[in-house]
Write a structure and sequence with these properties.
Blueprint: E1 2-7, E2 16-23, E3 26-35, E4 38-43, E5 67-69, E6 76-78, E7 84-86, E8 99-102, E9 105-109
Antiparallel strand pairs: 1-9, 2-3, 3-4, 5-6, 6-7, 8-9
Bound molecules: FE2/S2 (inorganic) cluster.
FE2/S2 (inorganic) cluster binds next to loops.
Length: 128
């Protein structure tokens, strides 16, 4: 079933955003980069050692805005195909996520997302 991530206009042009989606046994992180009416999306997992990419919430791009940056060891990835062009995992790729844009909304098929992380921790129980 398609899940709406956000409105297209919630992501500024040449900007990025991150999302965490609950899966059947945990959570999946994904990131999107907007270029005009196009959106490129990948799992939020670096092919080097699998850490999340962003340096701050929703900040996935390097200072030039031209590449996706892994904040752990500085790998740079092409926005259009996720290919690593600098850093410790050159020639490896981010894992693409199919995104659908319709009626100005950005949608993902949540059934196709893998589990990357364990489920959200339950909130602590309050003692009386
Ligand atoms: S974890 Fe991304 S470059 Fe090392």
């Amino acid at each position: 079933m398609d899940k709406k991530l956000c409105d297209l206009n919630d992501i500024r042009d040449n900007g990025s955003a991150g999302f965490v989606i609950d899966t059947h046994d945990g959570r999946c992180g994904l990131m999107v980069v907007r270029k005009g009416r196009e959106v490129f999306s990948y799992l939020n997992s670096c092919p080097h050692i699998g850490t999340p990419l962003e340096i701050q919430p929703d900040r996935f791009l390097d200072q030039s805005g031209q590449h996706i940056l892994c904040s752990t060891h500085g790998a740079l990835f092409q926005v259009e195909d996720g290919l690593c062009v600098a850093g410790p995992c050159v020639d490896e790729k981010l894992t693409p996520v199919a995104i659908d844009i319709r009626d100005n909304g950005v949608y993902v098929n949540e059934q196709e997302l893998p589990t990357l992380w364990p489920p959200r921790a339950a909130p602590p129980k309050l003692e009386d």
